[in-house]
Task: structure prediction
Amino acid sequence: MTKNKKVNASILIIGNEILSGRTQDTNTGTIALWLNSIGVTVMEVRVIPDIEKTIIDTVNELREYNDYLFTTGGIGPTHDDITARSISKAFKLDYEIHPEAFKILEAYYKPGEFNEGRQKMVWMPKDAKLILNPTSGAPGFNIDNVFCLPGVPSILKSMLGGLKNRIVGGKPILSNTISLRTVESEIAKSLSKVQDNNQDIEIGSYPFFQAGKLGVSIVIRSEDQFKIDSCSSEILNFVDEKKIEVVER
Result:
C-alpha cells in the first residue's frame, strides 16, 4: 500500500455485555481516532454477540473488503471468551497454545498463579503474530489483516502504539471543528451550498447542548489542510452574514 492509496478498516466489537447495555463501548472511538491519525478511514463498526458462528461469518465478511479489521473483546480467561477460537475457524487454522505467549504469561504471573483459566489466554490461531500488552501481560494477536484486541478500554489503548509499524496507512485525515450557537435548520441551506462546492471534503453537522443552550458543531475532514482552510472560510463567511455566534467548546 502507498501513501496515496485510500486505506480503510472496520471495527468489530464482540461481547454480550455491550449489547445488553451493561457496558458502554468506548473502544470504537479510541481505535477510530488512532486509525484516522495514521491515514486509515473507518468504514464500518459492528457489535455482535459471543456466538461462534456469528463471529466467524462476520470476520470472514469484513476482512474481505477492508484493508484491516480490528476486533475487541472475547480474548480473556472465561468460558464466554471465544474470539480466538472462532477466528482460528474463520481462517481454517489450528487452535493451539502460542509458545511465546505462554512464556510471557508464565513469567508475568507469580508461581502458582498461572492457572488453567489464565492459560486459556495463550490459545490462539496457529502462527498468529502477538500484539504485546504493556498493561496486563496477556497479548492480543493478528492473523493476516485481522487484529484482535482485548475489550478492556485502558488495556486496549495501551496496546495500539505497538501496532503502528504493522499498519500501512494513507495520508493522515485532518479535521477542523467550527462550533456555532445556532440550530441545524438555520444553517442547512448554506451548509449544503458549501458541500456542493467542495465535493471531495467531508462536512458533518452535529447538534450539542451546552450550558443550557443549543448549538451545532460543523466538522470538516480531509487529507488536504488547504482544502479544509478554504472550506472553513466559506462557512465562516455565511456565519458572519447570518450574524451567528461562534463558540468555544
The first strand starts at residue 7 and ends at 14. The chain has nine helices and twelve strands. The CA atoms of residues 73 and 152 lie 8 Å apart. Residues 225-241 form the longest helix (17 residues).
